[in-house]
Each structure stands twice: as C-alpha cells, then as structure tokens.
Design a protein that fits this description.
Strand order of the largest sheet: 1-2
Number of helices: 16
Largest sheet: 2 strands, antiparallel
Order of helices and strands: HHHHHEEHHHHHHEEHHHHH
Helix content: 55-70%
Shape: globular
Structural class: mainly alpha
Strand content: under 5%
Low-confidence stretches: 1-21
Length: 420
C-alpha cells in the first residue's frame, strides 16, 4: 500500500506564487480534479472487489473469501478520502447514503446471532432477513424477493419504511456479507463468517447460500454502478464540477464546509467521541471488519489533501495544482502555517490509532469503558480534529466568505443529550 508516505509527500507540495494563489477558478479546478481522481480510484477498486466477489461465488473457498475481503479493504482507501466532498456539495450529500450509510441493522439482510434480538419499536424490519425470505410484507405491501437484484435493494429495501438503519446497499452491506457479525464485543477479533456460507450444495452452512451470494453480487454491482455515476459528475462537463464552478465564493465555501463539517461534527463527533462516550463497540464505522482505524485515518487524509491541493492516486501518480493553502498563504501566511501544522498533528494522532490497531489493539478495544490507553488514543484524534476546525473557521473569515455553520454533534455540543 502506498499510503505510508502520503503525509510527507503532501506536506512537501510547494506553495504557488501570490498571483496564482488568488486565482479562485484555478483553486476550484484543482479541487474538482482531485475529486475526479478520487472517485475514479474508488471505482477502480470497487471493480476489483466486484471481480473478487465473482471469483468467490463461482468457486467458493476460504482463499476466495479472503481475496474478496482484501479487495474490500483496498476499496476503502480511496473512497474514505472522498468524504471531504460531502456537506458542501449537494450532489454528493444526496448520493452518499446509498454507498456509505452506517450503522446498519444487519438482521434486515441475513441471519444474526440470537443476542441480536428482533424487531423493535424503532425498526420493525431489523430482523427481516431478506436472504431467507423470498416473499415478505413491507409497509403493507407484499414484496416478491425471489430474485435479489440491485433494483430490489435500491428501490425497495434501502431505508425501508423510512428507517435510516435499514441499510441495504453500499460498502457496509457488502462488509457484513463478507465478514458477518463481530460478536467479540470489546475482545480481539472481527467478524468470522465461514466461506461455506457461500458454498454450493451440501457444503452450505447457515442455509440460503445461493441467495446470500445473490445479495452479495447485487450489492457489489450496485456499488460499482453508483460509483460510476459519481465519477461522471466530476469529469469535465459533469454536473458536480459545473455547479462548483458557477460561483467562485460559493465554491470556496463548499470546500471549507466539507473540511469543517467532516472534521468536527461527523468524524470528531459522531464517529469518534460518541462511541467513546457510549463505550459501544458497534459505534465504529467499519464494525464488521475491524477496519475503523483505517476509515478514520483516510477521512483525515482527505481533509488534508484537499487543503494542500495534492492527492496521490492508487497508481502512485500525484494530482496537484493551485490550492486553498496557496490562497490562504497569500492572504495570511501565518494562518496557512497554522493550518498545515494542525493538519499534520491530526494525521499523527490518527496515525497512532492506526498503528496501534495494526499492532493488535483494535479500535473496538479502545472504546471499552475504563481503557485509559484507548481513550487517550481516540481523544487524541478527536482533539486534533476539533483544533483544526477552529483554524478552518479562521480561514473562512480571512478569505472574506460568509460564515459557515459546520455540522455539529451532541457528543461535542450537548453531551448530556446523548444519554437522554
């Protein structure tokens, strides 16, 4: 993986001259070019995942399942770096729930352990188990699910009955089907779905192996088609790029909205501080695969590379150009230095979480009540993200842009409300 040198590479990107730094259209062009590269990389890695899933379903084996898992993990690296395009770009926000919604009530999709429970007042379909149900009633209508197709997942099941946790599509639906539930609580280990859950004939375990494979294929195919659509929005003439370029100041605000909202409310709050407050191992972004440390790291990296105007593609090439950092440096060099320093500090904190997890101290273990080392690691990331958001607010003011209301989180803004 080429990620090890991404921080160092990005921090060495030279500043442009003042005349170039204040060229707003050029800064927006770089931002759009990086978006196009990230979404294209996300598509390429999703297509590799699709091929691995096809191999698994054609010839199920432990090796084939592991290959599909590894392809899923690789697909998360570029995708998580795109999340900084949320919040400021309506096209991305309206679409994102199809591909990266979480947390999910996995009992909607497939079998779950008895400890999971059943339907609840909040979600009548939390244990529907579509894999085992060729026919079922949903919101008063009889549904024919004898064939599990992308259309069934996208148009009927996803957010069924208006419940957000009925996540039927995207990365996390695929993740659950590959790993199964993580039943280890705060203990070591991720989900341990056996490869025989996809086996043919008498070797099949946990029943409905053919339909489980149908669901996995449909979800993966849908993920690829959704990424194809988004990648097309950022190429020259694409709707997202065109909308960004319509108004220069609005475009700059979109960049900063994405940076600030992802840093503060979404990542520092909903994805990190909240899980630590609840001490809940399910409150981690990639909870079935125990890959949350990487999701957090690459989310943070996405913020940094948008600010610096530099992204290292999966083939090792560098996409770079006039950046927001150049513009800030031309306006207030000290503020640019401050922002770069804080981004670097955040990446170091997220890197410590990543290193610890890769050394055997998994993220769900860090969330355990009373685990001082885990709390220190997670809060290091939270504090870094909050701190860099304060500098992003200062950048908004320094560039003379209208004040931006970044996404918040009760875990940061009203902690008592979390337990009400």
């Amino acid at each position: 993986m080429k990620s090890a040198n991404l921080i160092a590479t990005a921090m060495l990107i030279p500043m442009a001259t003042s005349s170039l730094a204040i060229d707003k259209p050029a800064v927006l062009q770089t931002y759009a070019d990086i978006a196009a590269a990230k979404y294209h990389d996300s598509l390429i890695t999703a297509q590799s995942l699709q091929a691995s899933v096809s191999t698994l379903l054609a010839n199920p084996s432990a090796e084939a399942l592991q290959g599909a898992k590894e392809a899923w993990l690789k697909s998360r690296v570029p995708y998580q770096q795109t999340e900084v395009y949320r919040f400021g770009n309506a096209i991305v926000d309206d679409w994102e729930g199809k591909v990266n919604a979480w947390p999910l009530d996995e009992g909607l999709i497939d079998y779950v352990d008895a400890s999971y429970g059943g339907p609840s007042d909040e979600n009548e379909y939390a244990a529907l188990n579509v894999v085992a149900s060729p026919q079922f009633t949903l919101s008063g209508s009889q549904i024919d699910a004898s064939l599990i197709t992308p259309k069934l997942l996208a148009e009927t099941l996803h957010e069924a009955d208006g419940v957000e946790s009925n996540v039927a599509t995207g990365y996390h639906a695929v993740e659950f089907l590959l790993w199964g539930q993580d039943l280890n609580g705060h203990g070591a280990g991720a989900g341990a779905r056996p490869w025989t859950d996809f086996a043919i004939g008498d070797a099949c375990t946990n029943d409905n192996c053919d339909r489980r494979g149908e669901y996995l294929k449909a979800a993966t195919d849908l993920l690829v088609s959704d990424l194809e659509w988004m990648a097309a929005q950022w190429i020259e003439g694409g709707a997202a790029r065109s909308e960004l370029m319509e108004n220069e100041d609005a475009g700059l605000s979109a960049i900063l909205t994405g940076m600030g909202s992802l840093s503060y409310g979404e990542q520092a709050g909903e994805r990190m501080r909240l899980g630590l407050m609840l001490n809940d191992p399910e409150e981690e972004h990639d909870c079935f695969s125990d890959n949350t440390h990487n999701s957090h790291y690459f989310d943070g990296l996405g913020v940094q590379n948008v600010y610096l105007g530099a992204y290292v593609r999966i083939d090792g090439t560098l996409v770079t150009g006039p950046s927001l950092a150049d513009m800030v440096a031309a306006t207030d060099a000290q503020l640019d230095t401050e922002m770069r320093t804080k981004l670097s500090a955040t990446m170091m904190a997220l890197g410590r979480i990543k290193t610890a997890a890769e050394s055997g101290f998994s993220y769900d273990q860090m969330l355990e009540r009373g685990n001082a080392a885990g709390e220190a690691l997670v809060m290091g990331g939270v504090n870094g993200l909050i701190d860099q958001t304060r500098s992003i607010e200062r950048i908004v003011a320094a560039l003379g842009l209208d004040e931006i209301a970044f996404e918040g989180s009760d875990s940061l803004d009203d902690p008592e409300a979390v337990f009400q």
